[in-house]
Amino acid sequence: MELKRQEIIADQPAKKMTFMQTIKSFGPGIIVALSALGAGDLVDSSVAGSHFGYALMWVLILASLVRFVIVNIMARIDMCNVEGKTLLQGYQSISKWYPYFFFGFAIVLGHIINSYMIKGAGESLTNLLGFGNPLLWAIIAAVSSLFVAGGNVYKRLEIVEKGLLGLMTLTFLIIAIAVKPDVGAIAAGTVGFELPPGAGMFGALTIVLALVGSVAGSLTNFLYPHAMRDKGWNGPAFKKLQRNDLLFGVFIIIFINLSVWIVGAQLLKPQGIEVKNISDIANALETVMGPAGFVLFYLGTLGVLYSSIIGIGSGFAKVAVENFQLFNSGRSKKYGKDFAKDPLYKWLVIWFVISPIIWSVEGAPGFVVLTIFGNAIQAVALPAISIALIIMSNNKKLMGKYTNNIFENIVLIGATLLAIWGSIQLIIGII
Questions:
Q1: Which tens digit of pLDDT belongs to each residue from 5-33?
Q2: Is 400 in a helix, a strand, or coil?
Q3: pLDDT tens-digit series, residues 89-101
Q4: Where are the extended beta strands (E) located within 135-212?
Q5: How many Cα atoms within 13 Å fall on the side-chain side of residue 206?
Q6: Which of 250, 299, 308 is closest to 113 using CA atoms?
Q7: Is 389:71 a contact under the CB 8 Å cutoff?
Q8: 3-state secondary structure of 382
Q9: Main-chain dihedrals φ then ψ at residue 85, nearest 5 degrees
Q10: Mean pLDDT of all residues belonging to the chain
Q11: Which helix (H) or strand (E) holds 282?
Q12: Higher pLDDT, 347 or 116
């Protein structure tokens, strides 16, 4: 009889590490955080800052913490269930149709997400370097990312992502300081639950619902368990390290988004600048910091976009391969759980990284259209993803002592209801 996972790892406690050793061991949280970030986040945060000032910063933090709770639950299901199942195998146990659904969903959504990442990288490189055209640089960005994402290269991916994180942290920190932020207003906006003048409770509530609801069922959340297993974290012994790693990743998302939010509140709002794309932010920074502001912003933006391209290419390919193997059991026996060894993996990476270049051709839809379409697809899937997560994470037969606590259930159920509400509202809006 096959031993249950808890029996297998009972004699393998995680070794104690110093603070610096713990920080150096982080990786999956960084990869998933940088994969989730994109040009849309930069534009959204700057727009929020330009419209509401420092108010409603707490909404971004709330949404990020909700993401932490949800992804932590996903990681715990994958790591601590007593049957040794992966998260996606858990979904399959609820319904045999989940692998088909997730496979098709990943194929479409990964292509769409990278379409505006690659398009943004092409436009950013063109503006930064001052020669060439967006299509040429989009091709270069996409092809170069294949060298990182096109194989079983977790260590290489982690090194690249950590390097990009260093670049982004430095550039956005310099930018946030350069615009001379109002520290008191930041404190009020992040922990004071401040409402913007004229927005009212209903307007603020709408923003909260939109942000928190969109977090509950994002397919990007599924990249974390894969990165976690690639790192070698398997079993309850790694639970504390995994939780701290994920919390660090969430902090990255908060820091970068708030840095851009500060630019919107401190620089764009007073001048009445309307942000429609990332070039508007760069141009505004140039007026304050000179050419250095323009260059720094595009360097940070390129870090955000390039990290997303390789993270989505590699991560979505593994999610798709695992689901493909779940409804093709013979293939699973042949290649095992090292999904990058399946020949389908490399073809999917090419699909996720190369095919989106078509959206960089002149005349193709821009960021806004592509982003709305991607969000619309995700909105339809949110309830199916989050409802099954509630069922699995509270199943004592599957999870043993690692079921949700009351707080986690409140967050997960609340986010699920918001996801359902958001899906209905978006579908009504599209119709």
A1: 443 333 344 567 776 777 778 889 888 88
A2: coil
A3: 999 999 999 999 9
A4: none
A5: 7
A6: 308
A7: no
A8: helix
A9: -85, 155
A10: 82
A11: helix 278-289
A12: 347
